[in-house]
Amino acid sequence: MLRLADSWIWDSWYAYDGGLHHVFYLRASRGLGDPDRRHRHPSVGHAVSADLRDWTVLPDALTVSDFPAFDDWTTWTGSVVRDDAGRWRMFYTGTTRQDGGDIQRVGVATSTDLLVWDKHPPHTVLEADPRWYEKHGQSAWPEEAWRDPFVFRGDDGQWHMYVTARAGHGDWRSGGVVGHCTSTDLEQWHVQPPLTEPGAGFGHLEVVQAEVVDGTPTLIFSCASAQLDDDALRRYGTGGVFSVTGPSIHGPFDISTARLFPDTSLYAGRLVRHDGRWHLMAFRDLVDGRFVGELADPVPVTSTPDAGLLPAVDRSGAPR
To answer: Which own/partner contact pairs does 108-115 have at CB distance under 8 Å and 24+ positions apart?
Structure first.
C-alpha cells in the first residue's frame, strides 16, 4: 500500500526497469479539504518498489507548465513506454486555463532514467477528431474527453494508443468509447475510429488498458456510478473497475458484455505483471462513503472469456 500523509493518491501507471517497478500517480494536497477539488490541483508523483507493496517515494515526475500551454492547468493520467532507442516516453493528459479546462489533450515527455522528465514542444500530440469523436459543446456532457492514454506495441508492429473518449453520435449519457490512434515511430500519430461502440450505458471508459491475461485478451476500464446511465446502474448496482474480453488486444470488444470487478472500492485499475503473475493495481476510492485516496496492495488476478477479470484463487479456492 502507498499512502501519503499530506496528499491523496488516485490514478496510477507503471514502468519496470532494473528490477524495480516505477509507479507514477496523481496526487494532490489533503489541505484542499474537499477531495473533489483534487482534480484541478494535481502533480504526477513517483515511487519505486521491488514487490508492488512497499514503496519508496521519489521526487515528483511532472507538474503543470507555465501559461500558456496545453497543460498549464493540469497534468493527468498517462502511460510510459520505452522506444526503440531506449528512451522512456510518458504520454499524459493535459488541460489549459485558456479554454476553462474543458478540453483534454494528450502530450508527451521523455526521460533517460525515469527520474527526470522533459516535456517536448509543441507539447500537444493529439486531440479528439470530430470525424468520429464528440467535441466540447456537442452534447450536455461537460467536457471534451480525450485522456488517459495507454500506449503499447501491437501484434502488427505498430504503436497503438487507446484513450478515454466519447462518440460523436448516439445518446450522450452512454457515449463512452475507447478512442484509438496508431503510429510507426511514437512521433507522428494518426487518429482512427473508436475501438468500441457507444450505447452500453457508460458515459466514459476511464483509464483503459488491454493485456493478454492468462491467455485471454482483456480490456479493463473504470466508470463511477454517476457516469452510468439508468439501465447500466440497475444492471451493475454501482461503478468500479470493469473488464471485457475479446479475440485479441486489438479487439473487437463488446462493451455491453462488461463485467464489474468484485472489489468495488477499487478504481482506475492497472494490470501489472510481477513474479510471473498478473496483478491489479488501483487506488482505494470510496469506503463507507468516504474518499480514501491511497494506492491499494496488488490483487493477483486472472481472466477467462466467460468471467472476465477476477481475483485469482488457488486449487483450494483461497485467494492466491
So the answer is: 109/62, 111/87, 112/86, 112/87, 112/88, 113/88, 114/15, 114/17, 114/22, 114/46, 114/80, 114/88, 115/46, 115/58, 115/59, 115/61
Contact indicator for 37, 310 with CB cutoff of 8 Å:
no
Residue 316 clears pLDDT 60, i.e. is over it: no
Which residue do the cell numbers 514503496 mark? 55
Give me the pLDDT at residue 195, please: 97
- Note the pLDDT tens digit of each residue in 135-178: 999 999 999 999 999 999 999 999 999 999 999 999 999 999 99
pLDDT tens for 183-198 read 999 999 999 999 999 9
Q: What grid cell was written down for 269?
A: 485499475
Radius of gyration of the chain (CA): 18
Whole-number Å distance between alpha carbons of 160 and 260: 25
The average confidence (pLDDT) of the chain is: 95
Check residue 315 and give its pLDDT: 44
Q: What is the pLDDT of residue 319?
A: 58
CB 83 within 8 A of CB 89: yes
Q: Does domain 68-311 have CATH number 2.115.10.20?
A: yes
